[in-house]
Amino acid sequence: MQNKILTYLQLPPGSEPPALDHLSPFLAIVLAEEEVTELWQAEISRWLVAAGCRYLLAWGKDCEAWHDMVEDAALEAFDYEDVPEEHAVIATWHEDEDREEVFWFARHRAAHPSHSFKATVILDISLLNRKDEIEQEYADA
């Protein structure tokens, strides 16, 4: 198995996201620990799609809304017309699952018809930086 790039990114609600284009295409896991405004959620969803997120797993608060926003951002990027397969974003939400189960699925089952992901981004929507804890949990999955 090839080593994949794992990027942990803590993003407090309302903050500006960094560039991630160099990781494209990538799989993203949104850990929604904090409630956010709908406007900021839409901005972050557009940013994820524009940066190259092609598979999103949403977990935590309002994870279904994260799923819906990312799907909408992917359609919006192509003016709500047909999205070419290589630009399609697969999005899932995991409301009733443990975080460890989401990590396991991301590592062992998540697949895209057009991409083999070399990078995973864990987007931690949190006021606390939990890099070591989250990365260890992901590695153990």
From TrEMBL:
The segment(s) forming the DUF7684 domain are 6-140
A Pfam family per the record: DUF7684
Domain of life where this protein originates: Bacteria
- Which InterPro entries does the UniProt entry name for this protein? DUF7684 (IPR056101)
This one is known as DUF7684 domain-containing protein
Q: Which organism is this protein's natural source? A: Massilia aerilata
